[in-house]
Please model this.
Amino acid sequence: MYLNLATPKLSVKQLYFICQQLSFALESGMSLPMALELAAGELNHRVSRKFVEELYQAMEHGHLASEALRNTKIRYAPVLLEFVLAGEQNGTMKEALAQAAAYFQQQNKTKQMLFSALCYPAVLLVLMLFAFGAMLMFVVPAVVATYQNVQAELPQVTQFLLNAGSWLKDCWPIVISAAVLFLLLGAVGFRRLLQYASVRNRIKRVLCKIPLAGALYQQYWFVQISQGLSLMLNSGMLLVNGLYAVSHIYARSLFADELHQLTAELAAGHTWAHGIQQCSFVPKLARQMLIISEQTGTLPKALTQLNIYYQQQFQQKLQLLMSILEPCVIIILGIGILGIAGSLFLPLVQSYQYLL
Model:
């Protein structure tokens, strides 16, 4: 039910607040239905309050928390259901909700970091496009009109910019609407394409070959997967069940097939060492550490330490990528302005030649 795109959706930030409140309430000795009733009265966010109220009403009618989550009409991150199932099976709901709160808190920090890193280049790019459009619609025609008064012949480049500005001035609402529609349909279409394994593998091969960005993308997914798996193992879930839950949560990622294969091999009795070697998103150092830690029984601790280490590396690489991307956008902006200025300078030279 929560996969229906027409229903409201809870963000990771809202899920963090909900899980944190519930874990605090359970820590004080409350039952889960009582904690849900208390949280519903404390939450100010409309969707969050409705979500908690639905869970409370379902549990009041005798349903388990996992059943209430499956039947709710509000969408949420699938990992919450996995944590609740682990808490029900092991009798550790308080710890499971605390782990879920930690997971959503880290997810929120990662999203904020990505947003802050990508916001400046994106805003600069949008402003650059608007600046070029304004120059083509208003500046170029005004300057070219002065050249036409002296009957100077316009170069082809200047004439092209003049025609482009005239067309853009007449059709700018259509251009903006088409751009927005293209982005929306492109995002929806891309998510649908990721359902096909062949498409995922092709995109993954191309993306991983991009310098710096490919390694950054692989590291991002290792951080996400290792964080989710470590929290599930620390909450008492078995390794195979944790991998099954993680592969279900990240079913739309480019590495979903590798996660499914790893889960299937462990379920079939193969060793962890053999399966982890097939996962391309796992760094070489982390791969060896995970193999050794699984043999020594310290896999949850190793996953937690690796998650912290590679998350710091991911932040450093992201900052490096942004430090490279921002000058590139500025250089493109300068080249564009230089091209427009050059196209306007050529008629100026020809007008002087005409006067002479």
Remarks:
- DSSP finds 14 helices and no strands in the chain.
- The two ends are 78 Å apart (CA to CA).
